[in-house]
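Predict structure. Input: Methionine--tRNA ligase, 678 residues.
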Amino acid sequence: MTNFKRTLVTSALPYANGPVHIGHLAGVYVPADIYTRYLRLKGEDVLFIGGSDEHGVPITLKARKEGISPQDVVDKYHNLIKKSFEDFGISFDIYSRTTSKVHHETAAQFFRTLYDKGKFLEKESEQYFDPEAQQFLADRYITGTCPHCHKDGAYGDQCESCGTSLNAMDLINPRSVISGSTPVLKKTKHWYLPLDKHEPFLKKWILEDHKEWKSNVYGQCKSWIDLGLQPRAVSRDLDWGVPIPVEGAEGKVLYVWFDAPIGYISATKELTPDWEKYWKDPECRMLHFIGKDNIVFHCIIFPSMLKAEGSYILPDNVPANEFLNLEGDKISTSRNWAVWLHEYLEDFKDKQDVLRYVLTANAPETKDNDFTWKDFQARNNNELVAIYGNFVNRSIVLTHKYYNGVVPTPGQYNDFDKETVTGIQELIGKVEVALDNFRFREAVKEAMNLARLGNKYLADTEPWKLIKTDPERVKTIMYISLQITAALSILMEPFMPFSSRKLRDMLGMEEADWAISKQEEILKPGHKINEGELLFQKIEDTEIDRQLEKLAASKKANEMAAGRNINPQKDNISFDDFSKMDIRVGTILEAEKLPKTKKLLRLKIDTGLDQRTVVSGIAEHFNPEEIIGRQVTMLVNLEPRNIKGIESQGMILMAEDADGKLVFVGPDKKIGNGSEVR
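Output follows.
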């Protein structure tokens, strides 16, 4: 194993088009923070880099939806995301953004370097173009019917109903999100990174040299490589992003997945003038913490970019996690099926560490896992309160009760004392090994086992009984218990920094240091500790019920919205165009089905102006006899049209619901025929 002088930790850049939720925290940011805090406790040189990804189609879609500019969107959500991370103790050395001047310059220069070295393919291809909006359409600007599950509303890059990755050309009945029109194919020029040329390098670097990578990461990389890599476009026809810095590239920007990982470099540049020793020195170890949807970009595309540039180090490990589900269902921003971090802190004030602990203990490290509110409550009440908090509270309370808060001088250790002290060191070693290998679930479990060890020690020795018969023995028991408590305040720091700081304050300890946790005597006899307070509080059923009710409300709203296929708004018309339409209230006098047709009814309608015939395609929805006497609204000045040999003189107005059922549009109470709709 290489002995590195320093470590660079990066975490995936979240899209600044919405707040962050527990899935983000569990998959990327808590693991990255745990590892970074651990290295800092060991006194190692480490930088933790983060930032917001502020380019790409999701941003422009959000801006369009909210009727604001892309810059307004990223300003709003960058600040919200940054605050959420700060509130949860995610200890970035810098949290930057890809709209910064430094980033634009760095990304443009990176592209230009590869361009000048001839590392790109330049070719024309056909891409969907919106003839009404007069612009090329990125994948997310195209929707249609999924060719796999046949659900409508699939995007040009993925169907969110079945999760299948798509090519926009695969969609059935594609439509432009911008105008609702049918897109056409039009030629455009783009630059491609020829991943196929990097395949031999990737095979050796990943499949031979990094077999220690997590099985889910290694397996996905192997699958991609075995299928054969293809050139990947690094440019897009958009007006939001980093402009392509070459002639003939007007109206084109860097593809967001080329641009975003360069954000790690630009953020490091912003942080320190010595940025190159973290990016270009082989004695620096680079680690990417990401979710499984980013594995291909961080293990195949970004390393190929770095290799093509030639002066950068490559990642030593990419400990990616799988996905966290919520109450048995996939977390979804669009369906509001999530636990948002800023909302969590409104409902569970000062309980950041509870969520950090639960997400670590239940982390989706090699397979998808499920977060449930009942498990959250159980882990808090049965583990944090009943095990960790209980042990700490008893140790501190008894020390104040027996010795006025002063650490007692121990006597001779018996065999049980020696066994317990040995157990402390063994558990610290297990935590260390698990952290070194990115097994954070195992690490926090072993750390909690130290609290279990302390509880067992107190329960078996019963100092509250011995104090009356053997007070000298109690001094040894409380001394050892306080050493366990002090070790816990350091051991739990990477996982639960807020409660660890609180515990060290109670113990009168200075800043944490990993080496100190291994000392047999952390708190010396005569050391004065402060008054204790509860580290964790029980979470009641009513608090959990409120969270479940919020999710139930989201589920109900989603069920009501399910199946709704709302077409995009048509082009605006002038008021003069609208004023030409003469819409009146009329009454159906007669109705009969047209022979040899399934859909057509012949209606006789009193318009107030006259009585006229209208042929309407509503026969599959209404029986003729049930609509006689119904008042309707009708466009009376529509040019007459011959339908099945009958002159139809107007059109009645109908609405279509989510199931395709027709509903009459009419007045809610009887009104005179001929009344105008204004």
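Residues 373-403 form the longest helix (31 residues).
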